[in-house]
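hey
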């Protein structure tokens, strides 16, 4: 809600922010329980929608109860009794009768309910009908009951409730919120929609109401994103670069391949931003191996030709050095100085040298305060999900309104991208370089392991190389590391004695990692046993084999990233998944890996398996918590809302802004994300 200026009347809608404690029947204690559910104000309560409905329109006559199933009956209490079993269970029984017959309703361990069950009281009871083992009679094991007042809800909304909140009490409190406060909601349609959710008369109408509220929420959110983006653009006149075709011609001559059409489109997008006079804020998304690096390099070269420095931030030492070496080759003949800064080489002298470099590749070491650039005009963040907003901002602050390109291989599904990155421009490389063949993937049960080792041996003998990946997680890092070392020794001693085997893991000093990676790239090592440090970015096309141990311990997107290390050359590549997936989820992950190599398909499955929060990781979650909408299930609504938001802003920016401002505080956002969202 907009805060009223002094002297201005407070809008009535502010009453919706009344703390729940002030509702009838809710004291400070109950308010605390509500708070555990994230419900603090009347507004929260009104927008906490039912997760499901129970249809109580169909009651069953007592003489037609179906054993083994849930039944709903209406009847009168004829008789009650409470007894205690030998092991101290209390059993409450009430004989219920209707015009067709009688049945014993049974409650376990709730003797206090006796007070509600006076003889003659009319009840609506739902429960499972079971044949009693003692007397062969049908009993109703009660799940829920209420007193039949004649105007009971026939469709009962079900809420996610915390311990200590009883559905009936909850609904009563909600009812008093609806009676006393719904009228303060400015939008009449929303009032009606909330009523048809909380006091439903008709399931179809309730469904429609839910979609209406979800749509409304998505629309407000998209308005916020788009308005924020417009504002940013107006506020940030950026560097204007000139793209010199002659210089670019020389750059392309250094490549031993032609850019794919998708790469060309991405380059064109970036150059458009460079020459447009507004700071670029672009996400470059492309599956592993799609060739993002070269796109970044082309862009960096433009910055350099315009007299600026370019910085490339990489998440790991290995990756920084790999980029450095590639760029050195690429820019060797182009009068463009490339340098590298990681924590292992960082020194005063080194930092001073950076002043004279044109393109600087580095790890987190680049972010240190002591690192100063001469004239930083372009920033690339590689594997952006590995960095937080603040790290990105730190680097941006070292430049003069630099253009920013963030790159990711996480193929973020469209609905997520629109929610999370709606404020960013996006280029997608949706095509792999020619000649790539999809990796052949097999599951290896224990008894087939020897066979896969034999297969790998043959390929190694033919000159190929292999990765053997072992899991390593923070919680059991030491044990995992030991296991990886043992694995390496075992392989060397008994499985592949004729080949050279190396071990690489995150705990190794940067220099050593680099040496091992170099030895692998130069084919001095044939088999590289590794923990997941190879996950990002590593590019050794001759490595065409991968064996992943304990596959059940890896996430799906992670497996996809790992597999992306092979299948990079002309030769056929093979990925073996070894392990023992037991849970349904682990099995689904393996199944997905066997069925597809399409990063987007995998991401969609992963998103469904894990939900958006986990999918993105805590680091960058930055996702708003929607009260109603579900960005996976409501993708269609999301797309519609986005279109409408665009139209509204075009037609009447003023009222679009007012609408957003009146809604913004109803959105809660996990901090993080790519930054530049309306909430940061
Ligand atoms: P990623 O997008 O995963 O970062 P890279 O930039 O590491 O991928 O590129 C993967 C490999 O593909 C590299 O060896 C690169 O030289 C090569 N490559 C990139 N673009 C092309 C292309 N258009 N044609 C052929 N090979 C390419
Ligand atoms: Mg890469």
């Amino acid at each position: 809600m907009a805060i009223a200026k002094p002297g201005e009347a407070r809008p009535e809608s502010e009453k919706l922010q009344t703390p729940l404690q002030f509702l009838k029947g809710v004291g400070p204690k109950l308010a605390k329980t509500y708070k555990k559910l994230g419900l603090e104000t009347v507004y929260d309560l009104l927008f906490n929608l039912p997760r499901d409905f129970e249809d109580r329109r169909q009651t069953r006559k007592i003489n037609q109860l179906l054993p083994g199933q849930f039944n709903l009956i209406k009847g009168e209490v004829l008789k009650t009794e409470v007894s205690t079993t030998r092991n101290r269970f209390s059993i409450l029984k009430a004989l219920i009768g209707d015009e067709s017959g009688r049945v014993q309703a049974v409650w376990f361990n709730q003797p206090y309910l006796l007070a509600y069950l006076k003889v003659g009281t009319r009840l609506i009871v739902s429960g499972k009908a079971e044949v009693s083992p003692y007397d062969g009679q049908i009993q109703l094991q009660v799940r829920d009951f209420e007193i039949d007042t004649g105007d009971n809800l026939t469709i009962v909304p079900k809420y996610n409730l915390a311990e200590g909140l009883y559905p009936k009490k909850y609904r009563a409190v909600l009812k008093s919120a609806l009676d006393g406060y719904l009228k303060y909601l400015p939008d009449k349609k929303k009032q009606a929609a909330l009523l048809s959710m909380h006091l439903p008369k008709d399931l179809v109408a309730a469904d429609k109401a839910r979609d209406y509220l979800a749509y409304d929420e998505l629309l407000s959110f998209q308005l916020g994103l788009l308005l924020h983006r417009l504002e940013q653009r107006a506020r940030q006149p950026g560097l204007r670069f000139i793209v010199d075709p002659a210089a670019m011609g020389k750059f392309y001559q250094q490549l031993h391949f032609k850019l794919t059409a998708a790469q060309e489109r991405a380059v064109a997008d970036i150059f458009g931003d460079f020459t447009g006079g507004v700071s670029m804020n672009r996400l470059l998304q492309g599956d592993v191996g799609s060739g993002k690096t070269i796109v970044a390099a082309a862009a960096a070269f433009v910055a350099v030709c315009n007299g600026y420095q370019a910085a490339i931030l990489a998440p790991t030492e290995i990756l920084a050095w790999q980029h450095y070496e590639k760029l050195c080759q690429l820019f060797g003949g182009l009068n463009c100085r490339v340098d590298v800064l990681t924590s292992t080489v960082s020194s005063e002298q080194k930092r001073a040298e950076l002043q004279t470099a044109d393109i600087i590749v580095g790890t987190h070491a680049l972010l240190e305060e002591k690192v100063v650039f001469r004239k930083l005009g372009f920033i690339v963040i590689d594997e952006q999900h590995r960095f937080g907003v603040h790290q990105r901002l730190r680097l941006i602050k070292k430049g003069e309104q630099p253009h920013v390109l963030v790159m990711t291989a996480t193929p973020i599904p469209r609905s997520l991208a629109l929610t999370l990155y709606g404020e960013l421009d996006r280029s997608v490389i949706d095509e792999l370089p020619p000649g790539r063949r999809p990796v052949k993937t097999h599951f290896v049960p224990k008894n087939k392991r020897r066979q896969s080792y034999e297969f790998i041996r043959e390929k190694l003998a033919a000159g190929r190389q292999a990765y053997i990946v072992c899991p390593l997680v923070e919680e059991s890092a030491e044990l995992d590391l030991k296991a990886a070392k043992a694995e390496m020794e075992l392989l060397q001693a008994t499985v592949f004695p004729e080949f050279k085997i190396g071990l690489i893991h995150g705990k190794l000093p940067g220099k050593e990692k680099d040496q091992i990676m170099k030895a692998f790239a130069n084919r001095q090592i044939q088999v590289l046993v590794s923990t997941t440090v190879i996950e990002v970015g590593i590019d050794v096309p001759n490595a065409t084999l991968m064996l992943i141990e304990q596959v059940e311990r890896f996430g799906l997107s992670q497996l996809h990233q790992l597999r992306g290390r092979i299948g990079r050359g002309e030769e056929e590549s093979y990925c073996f998944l070894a392990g023992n997936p037991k849970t349904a989820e682990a099995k689904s992950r393996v199944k997905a890996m066997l069925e597809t190599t399409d990063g987007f398909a995998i991401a969609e499955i992963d998103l469904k398996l894990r939900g958006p929060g986990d999918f993105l990781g805590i680091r960058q979650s930055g996702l708003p918590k929607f009260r109603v909408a579900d960005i996976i299930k409501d993708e269609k609504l999301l797309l519609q809302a986005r279109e409408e938001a665009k139209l509204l802003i075009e037609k009447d920016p003023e009222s679009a802004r007012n609408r957003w401002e009146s809604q913004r505080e109803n959105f809660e956002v996990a901090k993080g994300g790519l930054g530049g969202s309306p909430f940061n």
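Residues 670-680 have pLDDT under 50 and may be disordered. The pocket of adenosine-5'-diphosphate (ligand 1) is lined by residues 257-260, 263, 286, 288-294, 409, 433, 537, 539, 541, 568 (CB under 6 Å).
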